[in-house]
Fold these 2 entries.
Entry 1:
Amino acid sequence: MRRLLVLGSTGSVGRQTLEVVRSFPGRFRVVGLGARRNWRAAAEQAREFGAVLALEDPEAARRAARELGGRLRVLGGPDALTELASTVPADLAVGAVSGLAGLLPNLAALEHGMDLALANKETLVAAGELVTATARRGGRRILPVDSEHAAIHQCLAGEEIAAVERLLLTASGGPFRDAAAEELAAVTPQAALCHPNWAMGPKITVDSATLMNKGLEVIEATWLFGVAVEQVQVVIHPQSIVHSLVQFVDGVTMAQLGWPDMRAPIQYALCHPERLPGPVPPLDLLRAGPLTFEAPREDAFPCLRLAYAAARMGGTLPCVLNAANEVAVELFLAEKLSFTGIPRLVEAAMAAHRVRGHPSLEEVLAADAEGRRAARRAAAAC
Ligand code: MG
C-alpha cells in the first residue's frame, strides 16, 4: 500500500486525486489531507479516509475538529500543511495547493522522504533550483501532474535528455485565443473563468486566459527536465488532445495524446512506473475531430514574453513574476484590476526588482514578498 498525503485536497486536483484513489481500492492509503479553509469538505474527506487533517485557517480547523468529534488528528494554523508533511510519514505527497503557498509543504514532503507528485507549478517557478536540489539530495522523485509535463515525462521514458532538441508545450489558447487585442481590456472575471477544455481552479483558469499559465509551464519544464529555456517552445493547440511533444536531435517527434482529463496525469504520477486500467476513457481519434496548431499571439498575451524574460534572467526574477501575477489575478478576480492590467503589474514588479542569483529559501520568500508589494503599488498607481 502506497501511503499518500494530499496537499490541497479540496481543490480541483485534490478532489480528482481522491477520485483516482477510490478507483484503486487496496493500492493507496491516504494518511494526510491538507486544505486552506474548506472545513466541511475536508472533514468529510478525513472521515472517509481516516486521515490526519491540516487546515491553514485556525477557525476552520476548530470547526473540522468539532465536526470529527476528536476521532482524528486535526492540525490548524498557517504552517499546518508543512507540519503535516513533516510529521505524518508517507511515500508520496500530491502537491496540489494553488500558488506559492505550496512551496513550504512541498519542500517538507521532499525533506521527509516522500516523492512529490507536483501539480503546483508555482513552487518550481519561484524556487526551482532549491526544490530540485532538495529532491536530488534526498534521492526523491518529482513526478509532474501538470498535463503537459506529464506528457513530456512519458515521451522521455527511456531517452537521454542530451538527445532532446526541444520540448513543445501545447496550450489551448484559453477563451480569448481569437479575441482582438483591444477587446481584452473589457474582459470580465466570469468570461475569463470559462475555460474551453479544462475544468480547473480559478487561479489557473485565469492564468490560462492570459497565457501566464503557459509561461509558468515553460519555467517549470526547464527545472523538471533540465533543459535550457531556449529549448522550450509553446504551440497553440485549441483542442487540447495533444498534451505536449518532444523533438529529438534525429528529427523524430514524440507526442502524448488523450482527452483533456486531469485524472490521466494524476493516475500516471500516482501509479508510476506502473500502467493500470483506471477511470480515464481512452482517446477515440475519430471523435476527437481535426487537430490544429498555431503560433501564440505574443502581442495580445504579453505574459508569455514576460515569463520567457524571467526564465532567461533566472535567479529571483521568476519568483517575482509569479508573486506579482498571484496578486494581479486576485485583484482581477475581485474586479479591482482589468484583464490587461495583469501583465502591466507583472512587468512593473519585474522592472523594480534587483535580481539575486541562486537564491536561498529566505531570499525566495523575500523576493516573493517584494514582488507582491511592487504589484500592489503598481495597482494603486493604475
Ligand atoms: Mg498544464
Entry 2:
Amino acid sequence: MYRLVCVECGESFPPDEILYNCTRCGHLLAVEYDLATLEIDRAAWDRRPLSVWRYREILPVSIPPVSLQEGGTPLYHLTRIGEDIGLPHLYAKHEGMNPTGSFKDRGMTVGVSMAMQLKKTSVACASTGNTSASLAAYAAKAGIPAVVLLPAGKVALGKVAQALMHGAKVISIRGNFDRALEMVHDLCLSHGLYLLNSVNPFRLEGQKTIGLEALDQLGGIPDRMVLPVGNAGNISAVYKGFTELVSLGLMDRIPMMTGIQASGSSPVVRAVHEHLPEVIPERDPETVATAIRIGAPVNAEKALTAIRRTNGTAASVTDQEILAMQRDLARKEGIGVEPASAASVAGVKKLLDMGVIDRDERIVCVVTGHLLKDPETVIRQCDPPLEIDADLPSLLSALQRS
Ligand code: AN7
C-alpha cells in the first residue's frame, strides 16, 4: 500500500486520487510506502530476472502490469575511456537497451499500468522525444489512445518515427518543450486524459529501478551516480529508490548524486552552484542534445534535494564536449548513445579535470538513450561512405585512400 505525499508541506492523499500536484500548496507529490511494515526478501529479488518488476514490492502497481519487458539493461565497465581519462572504476548503465531505446520505458511500464489500475481510458504527454516514443508504445500495448505534444522541429527523427508508428496522435507546437508541457497539463486537467510526464509521481517509481539494478549488477554501492538532467525526474527517481533501500536496511549510504546539463540549458547547474533555494527557469534553452533542451525542469525541487543531501554536484558540458564523448563511447567502447546520454560521461571527464571527482571513485553513469534515436546528428558528425564502382580494383584503391 502507498500514499501520495507532498514533498513540501507533507499533506497526504489517498492512492486512487488523480493528482499531479499538492492541492494545498501546489508542490510536487511523491509515492510513499509504509516501508516499516514491508517485508522484503532480498534473496527473492535476486532470484527474479533483472528488470523493473524484480522490485515489485516497492512499486505501486497491483494489477498485471502493462509490460514490454523493460529494464535489465547492461552495465558496462568503460575500460578504454576510463584509462584515457584516469578513472579505473567507471561504468555506464545503457538505458538505450530498453524496448523503445530509452529509460522512459521504466517509467511508462509503471505509469501506463497505473493508468489502467486507475481506470483511465486515454493518456497524454509533452516530450522532447523519448517520452512520446515510450508512451506511444505502452499505450499501444495497453490498447488505449495516446496524445503527444512535441516542440516543432526540435525532436530527433527516430523519436518522432516511433511515436507516429506506434499510433499516437502526434501534435507539434510552435513553441518549446516547457510550453508543450503547460499545454498538455491544462488539457489533462480539463479533459480527463491521464498525464504521463514526470510530474506524475508513478513514472518516477519505475525509473528508480535504474539505481536498484545498478547496485545489483555492481554487487555494491557506487560512490557516485551521474545522470543527464532535463526535467530532473530521473535523478530524483534514482535518489528516491536509494532512500527506500536505506529505510529498508538494505543499503547504508547513498552515492553522490551528480547531474549534468548542456551549457545552453543548465538551470539546475546554476541553482546548485549559486546555492539558490529554487531553480530559475531559462526562457530559451538551446543544445544539440535536444532530449535535455528544457529550461523549466518540473522536478527541480526533488533534484536539488537529491544533489544536496548526498553531497553531490552538478556541472554543464558544451555541445562539443557532448559530441566528442558520444564519438568516444561509440568508437572506444562500442556503446551507441544519443547526445543527451553522452553528457553524463562528458560531465565526469569535466568534473575530474576540475578536481571535483576523485580518481578512486566507483562511478556509474546513466546513458539514457540509444544512438539510433538521433541519426541526423550522427550523420552530420561522420564522413559519408565512399561510393565506388562495383569492382575489386576500385575497392582496393578506396581502402588505400581512406
Ligand atoms: C535521452 O522525452 O524530457 O531529467 O520528454 O530523453 O528525467 O528529464 C527526455 C529526457 C536524459 C533527461 N536523457 O531526463 C522527454 C524528456 C534522455 C532523455 C533525459 C531525457 P529527465
